[in-house]
Amino acid sequence: MRHNRAVTNADRTPAQVGPQRRARRRGTLTDMLRSLSLVAIMLLGVLGYARLGTPAHPAPSTDAAAVVEAARTVAPFPILAASVLPKGWYPNAASFDPMPGAAGRWRFHVGYTDGSQQYAGITASNAADAAQLLPGAADVAVNRQVPLAGLTFAEYRISGGTPVEAWVARGTGHDGAAYVIRIERAGAKGATTAHAFLASLKSTGAPAVG
Q1: What's the alpha-carbon Rg for the chain, to the nearest Å?
Q2: Looking at the predicted structure, is the pLDDT value of residue 186 above 70?
Q3: Residue 145: in which H helix or E strand, if any?
Q4: Residue 43 burial by CB count (10 A; 0-12/13-18/19+): exposed, middle or buried?
């Protein structure tokens, strides 16, 4: 009685085994390439979605309001910040730090941008570094005075590649220490945005004297 026996590679000649192995390899390679193609398509889809959903400008600072509020409870000088910003603008930086080795001396900064090259920042200090906020040799006075927060700010233009406007004021806080507040705006969109930004500034904190 004859028994049927499974045919193995041992029963085949080398000429028969070779094409089958190559066929299996081709099939495996084709499956792998097909899988990689699907993965690549999925990645491209995810990246495309992320690109569409990501704003072109940096994310706004989430703690700017908290920093301003904290500064206004401690600083002996006025803390200026925007109450209403020009359309499209948002805060992207804020800090309020004690100066090392100088009790009661602080440095405050808050920055705003519209996500392009337009930027406005406010920096105030009653420490030794406050002198760095005063007009420098490159600053040209515009002979325009701007009253804000009980102070009179003098306007300056700073020459360079990007147009920069600055407003600088000095005062004396309730602790008797002198301070400097410098407002600066960089960008090429002219004075309209600068005036809108200045009009949005509000101050609470220590009254300015002198």
Answers
A1: 33
A2: yes
A3: strand 139-148
A4: exposed
